[in-house]
Amino acid sequence: MNNPDREATPALAPVLTRGIDHLAFVTDDLPATMDFYTRVLGMQLVHVRRVPFERDRGQPPYENLRHYFFNMGNDELLAFFEYPKGLARQNRDLPGGMQHIAFHVPMDRFDKVIEHVKSCGINVIGPVSLGGRFWSAYFYDPNGIRLEIATSRAPAHLGVVPSALQTEEEARIELETLFDDPEVINQWLAKMPLKSPTKEESMQ
Predict the structure, then answer these.
(1) pLDDT value for 133
(2) Do 14 and 161 contact (CB within 8 A), yes or no?
(3) What whole-number percentage of the chain has pLDDT above 90?
(4) The domain containing residue 170 runs over which residues?
(5) What's the CATH number where 42 sits?
(6) Does any domain span residue 120?
(7) Whole-angstrom Cα distance, residue 111 to residue 158?
């Protein structure tokens, strides 16, 4: 039976991918990384292996690297390559770098997860409001990777993607900061699953 109290959510177009199989990061201290992700973030180590070097497929330029995998939930894996010590650190704030990774936690578990991270001696920044449904806290892993615990303040029945949808007005205002041509803006808006304004938004 349909719930009349639920907001109608625009239909999302099918995509070619299901989600993440695994994210692969780099560490030069695998024991510390294993401790952090299992103890602080409660992930489970599920696969350990060595990866031989092979040319021309963009893999790490080292022979016989350790490549360890953790279950990060939702049938998705987080992986780390162990590189030699003494290499320069990556700059996450340059093009091509990964600025941060955000792990989703439902709103009813958000405070408990943040308190657990703090109890492990980790300095947590936030939680802070990022506007709209976004509510997040930030900290760093032993490798200097910036991590985010994110939740949604939208109604509980909405998933992560539906809770991020915007009205046409909200999206247009932002797209106008990127494109000068109204036709280009309209083309992008036509591709987006835009939601209808709420009664409160319509009255503003």
Answers:
(1) 84
(2) no
(3) 69
(4) 165-196
(5) 3.10.180.10
(6) yes
(7) 19
Q: In what order do the strands lie in the sheet with 22-27?
A: 22-27, 77-82, 65-71, 44-51
More confident residue, 131 or 129: 129
Check if the beta carbon of residue 29 is closer than 8 Å to that of residue 142.
yes
Residue whose token pair is 């049938």: 75
Q: Does some domain include residue 148?
A: yes
Position 46 pLDDT exceeds 50? yes
Question: What's the chain's length in residues?
Answer: 204
> What average pLDDT does this structure show over 52-71?
85
In a domain, 95, yes or no: no
Q: Are residues 24 and 80 in the same domain?
A: yes
Q: How many domains does the chain have?
A: 3
Q: What is the mean pLDDT of the chain?
A: 89
Rounded CA-CA distance 109/87 in Å is 38
Question: 17-41 pLDDT, tens per residue?
Answer: 999 999 999 999 999 999 999 999 9
Whether residues 39 and 69 fall in one domain: yes
Pairing of the two strands 77-82 and 125-129: unpaired
| Any domain includes 1 | no
Residue 2: what pLDDT?
47
Q: ∠ CA 161-42-154 to the nearest 5 degrees?
A: 25
What one-letter code names the amino acid at 45? L
Give CA–CA dist 76/96, Å, rounded: 23
| Residue 80 shares a structural domain with residue 41 | yes
Encoded tokens for 84: 């030699």
pLDDT confidence bin for 4, thresholds 50/70/90:
very low
